[in-house]
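DOMAIN: structural biology
WANTED: fold as C-alpha cells
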Amino acid sequence: MAKFNIYTYMFAPVVHTEDEPDFCEDFEQTIEESLNKKQEILSSFFEDDFKFNFRDSEGTYFHKWLVKQDGIFVLRIANNKATTIETNFEELIIPNYPSLIVIIDNRHNRQVIAIQKSKAWSKTSDVANILQETFNSLLRPKYRIQLSINPKFHTHEFWKIVKDFPNGILKVTFHFPYPNLPAISDLVGEFYKEVALETNSEPSTTLSVIPKQKTVKLEETSFLLKNMIAACAASGKPIIMEPRGGTKIRCGENNLVEEVLSDAALDDLSDKDELFKSKMELLVKFLNKIKLVYE
C-alpha cells in the first residue's frame, strides 16, 4: 500500500503593486473572472500542448504525466539527488532522480492534492512547496490569482493540545482562507467571508485571555469553536496556540492526514494499459473517500 499526505489548495486574488516584477499590464480578464474560472485555468496548464517545468529556488524537477482525465491528474515528479560513490580511490558523482506520485483532484469544488510519502523527499511539504511555486509562476502574471497548498490536519489535534496543557491556553489565533470552496466558507461563516471579499484578505481571529482571568474558555460543546477548528483543519490554514507555561504551537503540523492507496492502482499506471479503467476506478474511489474535515 502506498501512503499519501492530503493537501488542500485554495485560491486568492493578487492585487497589482509597484514592486511586482512578474506582473504585466496586458491581463486577459479581471481578477473576478479569474477566480470564477480558477479550476478551469489550473486544468489548462495540464493540457498536452501546454509546456512548463516544475521548479523552485533550488532548481528544476523532471516530471512525467500518467493520467489526465475528468479533472483528475496524476504525475511522477523526480528529486535531484546526486549520489557520490568511490571507486579506484576516486569519488564519482552519479545522477540520481528518485520520484514519487502526486495526485491532483481538480474536479469541481474538490481542490485536493495527495502527495506520496517516499524516500524521494524527506517531507511531502517540500513537494507541496514546489507545486505551489510553479503554479503561482503561471497564475500570478497572467490571471492575477494565486494558490496556497496546505496539509489537512485532524481536528482532535486541537483538543489534544488543550488537554496536554492543564494550566490552560492564553491565546488562540485562527487563520481562515479566502473564500473559494463553499463547504469551507460555510464553516467560516458569513461575517469572515464578507471581510475577506471586501478587503482581498485572508481574515483571522484571536481569542485572548481576559485580564485577571487565567485561561481562554475552550469547550468541545461550543458549536462556533468546532466550526472554526474544522475550517482551519479542512483548508490547512494554521491555528496558533499559546499555552500557559509553554511556547507557541502550530496545531497539527507534526501529524498530517494520511490515506493509503493500493499499489495495484499505481503499478505501470498509464492510459495505454489494458487495466487502466479498473485502476482509474480504484483511483477515483481513493479520492472520493478523502474527507472535507478529519476528526
Q: What stands out?
A: The first helix runs from residue 31 to 36. The chain has two domains: 2-152+256-288, 156-250. The longest strand covers residues 2-13. The chain has a mean pLDDT of 90.
